[in-house]
């Protein structure tokens, strides 16, 4: 898996999509807050595994919390973290399989990248990309040459 670079100037506007999902599906997008840490981290563990749970925990050590979430009522539908594994890195991010295709992941990505831009970054790194086509299409991200040897290269793994 390679890393990608995305320019944070002129990100796509998603306010209309946010309004439509709120009206049609009662989906709210917002930054997570500290009292929810145990709930969101348990959800990430259940749906995406231990590594992403660890990265999500780090997002809660930042002030403000560097994690966006999508929720319907009391149900978490998706999340997106940034500045968890490294400075200026986006990820991890995930949406429930049953909720994919609605634009939730796109909105969480854009909200996170906007937050990174507000921190003063002009570009962001999307680390260890799985769906490169999604990032290319959504935010015009470009693969970083030579990044197949990444920050995750010597990650300790269970035997």
Number of helices: 5
Radius of gyration: 15 Å
Helix content: 25-40%
Look at the structure and give the mean pLDDT: 96
| Strand arrangement across the biggest beta sheet | 2-3-4-5-6-1-7
Keywords:
single chain, alpha+beta, 5 helices
Q: Which helices and strands, and how do they pair?
A:
Blueprint: E1 4-7, H1 15-25, E2 27-31, H2 37-48, H3 50-59, E3 67-72, E4 75-82, E5 89-95, H4 104-118, E6 123-126, H5 132-139, E7 142-143
Parallel strand pairs: 5-6
Antiparallel strand pairs: 1-6, 1-7, 2-3, 3-4, 4-5
Helix pairs in contact: 2-3
Fold and architecture overview:
With 159 residues, this protein is an alpha+beta fold. The chain has 5 helices and 7 strands. Strands 2-3-4-5-6-1-7 form a 7-stranded mixed sheet, with helices on both faces. α4 links the parallel β5 and β6.
Question: What's the gist of this structure?
Answer:
It is built from five helices and seven strands, in the order βαβααβββαβαβ. With 159 residues, the protein is of the alpha+beta class.
């Amino acid at each position: 898996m390679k890393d990608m670079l995305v320019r944070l100037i002129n990100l796509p506007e998603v306010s209309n999509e946010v309004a439509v999902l709120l009206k049609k599906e009662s989906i709210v997008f917002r930054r997570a807050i500290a009292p929810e840490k145990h709930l969101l981290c348990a959800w990430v563990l259940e749906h995406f595994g231990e590594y992403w749970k660890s990265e999500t925990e780090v997002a809660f050590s930042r002030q403000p919390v560097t994690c966006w979430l999508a929720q319907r009522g009391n149900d978490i539908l998706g999340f997106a973290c940034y500045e968890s594994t490294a400075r200026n890195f986006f990820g991890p991010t995930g949406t429930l399989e049953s909720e994919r295709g609605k634009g939730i992941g796109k909105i969480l990505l854009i909200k996170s990248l906007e937050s990174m831009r507000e921190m003063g970054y002009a570009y962001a790194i999307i680390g260890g990309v799985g769906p490169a086509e999604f990032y290319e299409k959504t935010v015009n991200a470009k693969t970083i040459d030579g990044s197949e040897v990444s920050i995750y290269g010597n990650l300790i793994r269970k035997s």
